[in-house]
């Protein structure tokens, strides 16, 4: 396990992932009944942007660094407000020193009646997560393989919730495990909202993945992609995508505003752009 998220925390890919997660949680909060957030590949929860590792890549400067403390257009400001709430929960209103990973984005937004299960396999990262989250009775922290976690945690007893699946895609066979994990997860919890994050280097691998997930017979499958470069150079992260199964009503309309804004604001080349596509079903 070589992947360490601290090198990438707060980059453009984290921005679109965490903005979407925060919006889904806000939609779930429209009903008083409790929900559960399940984070199968959680990372360490909180990232020091002044650390040597974060400074080495400086990726956050081209991500959250281009949004925090900057003017945002009306209409976008409101949609990014929950995401900013979670960032504020680890920094206050001042200087951006710390970036919340998905566990803290979720915990910063959930209510007393909601619960969060986070899972991280790397022993050191798991220990860091425990230090940050222990003592919160709404949170359960696991240290098992994310694909096993996915199977064993579904369905949640609340029968409402969102599952974030955010693997590092560093080992061979991850796509097969992803497709079979999703298939099994959907059999156990067909009505959940699933957010599956993926990196975009070249397009062929991504198209194969999208086709294989679409073939699972999902009724509603939305695909949101943000490109900061033209895809092609396989050595570089050119974009990132989210497959969203059972997106809440309004999410496509809201992402339809946010994605073009982020493509412009977070562009790293003239080829930056975004796509929002229904791979199955539609918002109606
Ligand atoms: C992309 S990072 C997670 C970032 C986090 N979800 C966020 O948005 O802040 C992927 C994480 O998965 C962990 N990981 C790698 N293989 C795993 C596995 N088989 N099961 C669970 N976690 C794993 C890595 O240690 C890493 O922390």
From TrEMBL:
One of its GO terms (cellular component) is cytosol. The record marks 3 as: Interaction with substrate rRNA. Keywords: Methyltransferase, RNA-binding, rRNA processing, S-adenosyl-L-methionine, Transferase. Its EC number is 2.1.1.266. InterPro entries: RlmJ, SAM-dependent_MTases_sf. S-adenosyl-L-methionine binds at residues 18, 41, 102, 120, 145-146, 166. GO terms for molecular function: 23S rRNA (adenine(2030)-N(6))-methyltransferase activity; RNA binding. It comes from the Bacteria. Belongs to the RlmJ family. Specifically methylates the adenine in position 2030 of 23S rRNA. This is Ribosomal RNA large subunit methyltransferase J. It comes from Candidatus Filomicrobium marinum.
């Amino acid at each position: 396990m070589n992947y360490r998220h601290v090198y990438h925390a707060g980059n453009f890919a984290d921005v679109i992932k965490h903005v979407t997660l925060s919006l889904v949680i806000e939609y779930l909060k429209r009903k008083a009944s409790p929900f559960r957030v399940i984070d199968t590949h959680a990372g360490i929860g909180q990232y020091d942007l002044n650390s040597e590792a974060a400074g080495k890549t400086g990726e956050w400067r081209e991500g959250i660094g281009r949004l925090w403390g900057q003017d945002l257009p009306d209409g976008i400001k409101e949609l990014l407000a929950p995401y900013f709430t979670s960032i504020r929960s680890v920094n206050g209103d001042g200087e951006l020193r710390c970036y919340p990973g998905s566990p803290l984005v979720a915990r910063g937004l959930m209510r007393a009646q909601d619960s969060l299960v986070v899972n991280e396999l790397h022993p050191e990262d798991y220990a860091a997560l425990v230090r940050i989250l222990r003592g919160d009775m709404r949170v359960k922290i696991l240290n098992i393989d994310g694909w096993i976690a996915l199977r064993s945690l579904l369905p949640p007893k609340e029968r409402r919730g969102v599952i974030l699946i955010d693997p590092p895609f560093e080992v061979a066979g991850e796509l097969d495990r992803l497709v079979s994990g999703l298939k099994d997860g959907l059999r156990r919890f067909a009505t959940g909202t699933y957010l599956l994050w993926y990196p975009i280097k070249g397009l062929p691998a991504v198209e194969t993945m999208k086709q294989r997930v679409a073939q699972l017979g999902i009724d509603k499958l939305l695909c949101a992609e943000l490109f900061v470069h033209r895809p092609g150079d396989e050595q570089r992260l050119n974009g990132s995508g989210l497959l969203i199964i059972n997106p809440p009503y309004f999410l496509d309309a809201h992402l339809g505003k946010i994605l073009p804004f982020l493509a412009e604001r977070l562009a790293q080349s003239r080829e930056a752009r975004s796509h929002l596509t229904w791979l199955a079903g539609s918002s109606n």
